[in-house]
Amino acid sequence: MLVVALVQIMVKPGEAVTCGQVDASLASCISYLTAGGSPSAVCCDGLKNLKTITPPTADRRAACDCVKAAAARYPNIKEDAASSLPTKCGVQMNIPISRSTNCANIN
């Protein structure tokens, strides 16, 4: 939760989201994304934070690009685990968690 609190502090209204903020929000999800199972509460908190810091369309598109870049650094991420993460955390995301998403199509 400390990471989530720090990320929320770092984002100010009107400022664009950065890949560092996206990475920090999802860092605790790596074990779930690579091994499957159930995401931790900290992972789900990070996902909720990601939704909170990306309300404008431009921020969602930027966050999508960051998610894709992060996924490229972890080739062992399971696509099914990634796509099911929002549902397992009970978070309705406007950003698909997938390597194959066309981020320009996010509204």
Topology, pairings included?
Elements lengths: L1 H9 L8 H8 L3 H6 L5 H13 L3 H17 L5 H11 L18
Helix pairs in contact: 1-4, 2-4, 2-5, 4-6
Protein name: Non-specific lipid-transfer protein 11
Organism: Citrus sinensis (Sweet orange)
Q: How many distinct helices?
A: 6
Q: How many distinct beta strands?
A: 0
Tell me the fraction of residues in β-strands, as a range. under 5%
**Biggest beta sheet summary:** none
Q: Spans with pLDDT under 50 lasting ≥5 residues? A: 1-12
Mean of all residue-level pLDDT scores: 87
Ends apart, CA distance between termini = 29 Å
Structural Rg: 13 Å
SS content category: mainly alpha
Helix content: 55-70%
Query: Can you tell me the overall shape?
Result: globular
SSE ordering? HHHHHH
How would you sum up this structure, described in words?
It is a single chain. The chain has about 110 residues and is mainly α. Helices cover about 60% and strands about 0% of the residues. The chain contains six helices and no strands. The N and C termini lie far apart (about 30 Å). This is Non-specific lipid-transfer protein 11.
Can you summarize this structure?
The chain is mainly α and 107 residues long. It has 6 helices and no strands.
Keywords:
single chain, 107 residues, mainly alpha
